[in-house]
Structures are given as C-alpha cells and as structure tokens.
Amino acid sequence: MTIYVVNPNSSQHVTDGITRAVAPMISASPVPIEARTLIEGPPGIETQADVDGVVTPMLDHCAALEKTASAFVIACYSDPGLAALREQSDKPVLGIAESSILTAMTLGQRFGIISILSTSIPRHMRYVGAMGVADRLAGDQPLELGVQDLTDKTRTFERLKTVGINLRDTAFADVLILGCAGMTAFRSDLEMSLGVPVVEPCQATTAMAIGRVALQATQ
Q: Which residues belong to CATH 3.40.50.12500 in the chain?
C-alpha cells in the first residue's frame, strides 16, 4: 500500500521537487510514499481551464491506483477534482490547498498566500471563501512567475523574499503559504530569511496523509 502524491501537471521537475520535499517523511510513514506525474496534464496549471481539464485524466489515473493506495494527495494548489476524487475513492483524499490552509491556521492567526500569477488569485479567493476562513487571510500576492519560470531558483527566491516581506510587513501575515507545488525547494530558506513560519503544501499535506493512514491502523 502506498500514499500517492499526484502532480496533475506534466512537468517532471515539479514531481522531482515533490519527491525531494517529502523524502524526510518516509521514515515516519507506515507505508511508502510515491510522487507521480500526470503526463496528460499541461506543463503548468495556471488557469481555470487548466484546472478543469485535468480532472478527468487525474480521476482515471487514480482509479488505476485504487487497489494499492493508502491515500491520495492532489499536489496542485487549485485542488483540482478534490471532491470528485473523494467521491470516487474509498481512501483518504487530501488537496494541498485545503490542507496547507488548515495547517497554516495552527501556526498563526493570519496567513498569507504567495501565488505564482495574479490570475491565480481569484481562484484562491473563491476557495478560501468556500472554506469559510476568509477572515484569517491576510492577503494573497503573486510572484508573476509561471510554473516553468520557477526553475530559475535565484530569480524565484528573490521574488519570494520580496512578496513574503510585503505580506509580513504590510498585510501583517504571521504565517506564509507557498501557493504552488513548484515552490517545494524554497520553504526552509524562506522561513529562515523572513523569520515567520512558511508552509510548503506538499509537505504539510503528506504529513496529514501519514496521520490519516496511521489513524486508520488503530481502528
């Protein structure tokens, strides 16, 4: 049995980053953890059309894994197909947006989201509103870098610091969320640089999945 962390875009470098981010958790997990790439997906999920378009292939991908799955993690900050996969699967299904927001609220009073693009923000606002936690949101600000642009680590980290400082000092966020699975490499350095907790969603959600699997073993 395995916790499957499914990257709904087709960028293998994003999946490789997820694998590195969750690797320290393997020893704490009662089952293996495997990051997977949805090859039918776009190179980056950056629009609502991208989000909607990956749902059916992702459901098919996960259906083929159902018998060997302990849990599924949807590793895209738009949580595409979260409700549909929960309906389809008998296993725990967690989305990195929902889980990272819940984690952030245990670390501070007001969370800030660092998005990839300004066009991502309306989707995030709808989601935060649907979760009923808009009063805990300090702000959502973009890097204005696409998923493919995040491979330039120097430029990405400088933008992360600039946006993070603005969320911390102007919006008064006391915890930050990296709003894309392509940002996995930056959590610890950004946290050290800014002096506030930084939530990397793939790590936070995989930790929740480990907990759910362990809890089921107690029944």
A: 2-96+203-216, 98-200
Distance CA 7, CA 14 (A): 8
| Residue % of the chain over a pLDDT of 90 | 98
Q: How far apart are CA 49 and CA 187, in angstroms?
A: 28
Residue 194 neighbours by CB under 8 Å, 6+ apart: 161, 164, 165, 168, 176
Closest C-alpha among 100, 122, 110, 103 to residue 180: 100
pLDDT in tens, 111-155: 999 999 999 999 999 999 999 999 999 999 999 999 999 999 999
Look at the alpha carbons of 85, 209, 49, 129 in this order and tell me if their dihedral is positive or negative: positive
User: Regarding the domain delimited by 98-200, which CATH topology (the fold level of the hierarchy) does it fall under?
Assistant: Rossmann fold (3.40.50)
